[in-house]
Amino acid sequence: MRMITFFMVGLTVHVVFFLSIFDIYFTSPLVHGMTPQSTQLAPPASRLVLIVADGLRADSLFTRLPNSSCRTPFLRTIIEESGTWGVSHTRVPTESRPGHVALIAGFYEDVSAIAKGWKENPVEFDSVFNESRNTWCWGSPDILPMFAKGATGDHVHTHTYPAEEEDFASTDASRLDSWVFTQVKSFFQAAHSNSTLKATLLEDKNIFFLHLLGIDTNGHAHRPMSQEYLDNIALVDTGVAEVVSLIEDFFGYDGRTAYVFTSDHGMTNWGSHGAGHPSETLTPLVVWGAGVNKAQRVTESQPYEDGYLKDWNLEHIRRADVNQV
């Protein structure tokens, strides 16, 4: 009897300690009931193109090939000539959902979402998509719906491929990214002959979000050092170049489009993510277009001691790191 009592007391203490973790750490950081605020200052951009290459490591994008050529010539040109670059620092857990919430909603994910497999919103939250006039999204059915679900009205438009396409054993997951690029091109081509859609696109406060899952999927299946992973990065660079050209042509090169290219998280050498290793927390950030400084050449040393500037041959271009959130 004494042993049973001792066991029950011990079990109770451990249960209380376990539940206290959820009470202390799994509490939402959000405050509800606040009135949205806006500024009277005129924005430098009329529209935003946000491109997130899921699972892309910073070093995989920025490192040159052994022969000094570049796997991503378009983005490299942006970095060295017409945009601003840096490292976006994520934090644990390095998963797709909390990464996208940090990028698009501007807060660190309520970790209780892990109890729902990072699929559902444990609490409602606002996002830049919700505050836009219209947002069009293309990509994974695991990511896009969570931003449409919490939006007021019907101005967040999502276009996803079937969930069964996300095959982590696929030999060619880059087709997921090809699908996105093809859909975006078809969308803008159709707008030329659709006066209603064209008029909507020409309004301000519009966002175009491209979620590219192929790199992450290839990383899980083949590892980040594999040819599949690296070739997928090159495919994304080509696709981004084509989409940017199409968008600039559609809007008549009006100089009012801002572009952000980044990643939600990185990946370890063995194809996993979720923890806090630098390969998981360091993600690339390349920004250009309306309201963004062009590349700034520097001759003095920069305030970064991680050695990456030399590794990436970018000591001469000003680096601007940010926290992902």
Describe it for me?
This protein is 38% helix and 15% strand. It has 12 helices and 8 strands. Strands 4-3-5-1-6-7-2-8 form an 8-stranded mixed beta sheet. Ethanolamine phosphate transferase involved in glycosylphosphatidylinositol-anchor biosynthesis. Transfers ethanolamine phosphate to the first alpha-1,4-linked mannose of the glycosylphosphatidylinositol precursor of GPI-anchor. This is GPI ethanolamine phosphate transferase 1. InterPro entries: Alkaline_phosphatase_core_sf, GPI_EtnP_transferase_1, Phosphodiest/P_Trfase, PIGN_N. Pathway: Glycolipid biosynthesis; glycosylphosphatidylinositol-anchor biosynthesis.
Helix content: 25-40%
What's the pLDDT, averaged over the residues?
91
Count of DSSP E strands?
Answer: 8
Compressed to H and E, one letter per element, the order equals HEHHEHHEHEHHEHHEHEHE
Q: Determine the structural class based on helices, strands and strand pairing.
A: alpha/beta
N- to C-terminal separation? 54 Å
> Main β-sheet, in a few words?
8 strands, mixed
Shape: globular
Beta-strand fraction estimate: 5-15%
Radius of gyration equals: 22 Å
Biggest sheet, spatial arrangement of strands? 4-3-5-1-6-7-2-8
Helix count, per DSSP? 12
The low-confidence runs, each spanning 5 or more residues with pLDDT under 50, are none
Features:
GPI ethanolamine phosphate transferase 1; GPI_EtnP_transferase_1; globular; alpha/beta; 325 residues; transferase; endoplasmic reticulum; 15% strand
